[in-house]
Structures are given as C-alpha cells and as structure tokens.
Amino acid sequence: QVQLVESGGGLVQTGGSLRLSCAASGRTFSTSHMAWFRQALGKEREFVSAITRSGGKSDYTDSVKGRFTISRDNAKNTVYLQMNSLKPEDTALYYCAAGMGNWYRPEYWGQGTQVTVSS
User: Fold this and answer.
1) Which has the closest alpha carbon to 74: 10, 28, 8?
2) Neighbours of 66 (CB within 10 A)
3) For the segment 71-84, what is each residue's pLDDT rounded down to a tens digit?
4) pLDDT for 14-65, tens place per residue?
5) How many Å apart are CA 57 and CA 83, to the nearest integer?
6) Cα distance between residue 65 and residue 97, in whole Å
7) Cα(61)–Cα(37) distance, rounded to whole angstroms?
C-alpha cells in the first residue's frame, strides 16, 4: 500500500515555473514506478510523466517534453515534477500516482494539487 500527498501547486503566470512534490508513505515506494497525471476542467485525466523505480528512465507526454522534468528521491520517498515555461493549457489538477506494473495504469493515487497558469 502507498499513500500519496501532493503539494506545490498554485497560480503562476504564463512562462513561469512550479515544482510539484509528492510525498509517499508505505514500504513499497522504492519498488514503485511513479507518475504524474493531470485533469483539466471538463476533460479526461491524461498522462503527463513517469519515472522508473531507480529513476533511470522516464517518459513524458509530447506536450510537456522539454518543459517538464520528473525526478525522485527514494531516500525521502518523494517524487517531483519541475514545470517550466508554463502555458495556460497546463492548467489542471495534477495527480501523483504509483504502481508496480504499467505506469500508464497506476494502482495508487493522490488527491491532487491545482495548477493554474494565467495568460
């Protein structure tokens, strides 16, 4: 079992930056892939980024490549999402997720943190 708590969301202007954090509790963090998803108002939840257990491999959706960076610190049971050059279309509720299988279909979810990018 993994419990996830996101933080770091907020209101930022276009072109600004935010760093999201996700603190995990439970003994399985270091053995879990970690991912970020987002859901904009009126839209379906979508994959944003994921990282392997060791942190050696990551994946991004095309719309955030070159702007977002995922990382993790297994000693702190925390995963991060550094978001740069933010755009209004990045506005969404961002969810942290964890799992041991397919990282596009994680087993555990946080409650989400709101990111709003003003134009």
Assistant:
1) 28
2) 9
3) 999 999 999 999 99
4) 999 999 999 999 877 888 999 999 999 999 999 999 999 999 999 999 999 9
5) 18
6) 19
7) 10
**Backbone phi, then psi, for 29, in 5-degree steps?**
-55, -45
Q: How far apart are CA 72 and CA 14, in angstroms?
A: 26
Written in H, E and C, the secondary structure of 5-71 is EEECCEEEECCCCEEEEEEEECCCHHHCEEEEEEECCCCCCEEEEEECCCCCCEEECHHHCCCEEEE
Nearest Cα to 97, choosing from 40, 31, 35, 54? 35
Would you call 86 helix, strand, or coil by DSSP? coil
Task: Give the mean pLDDT of 93-114.
Answer: 95
Closest Cα partner for 71 from 47, 53, 55? 55
Count CB atoms within 10 A of the CB of residue 34.
31
d(CA 72, CA 53): 9
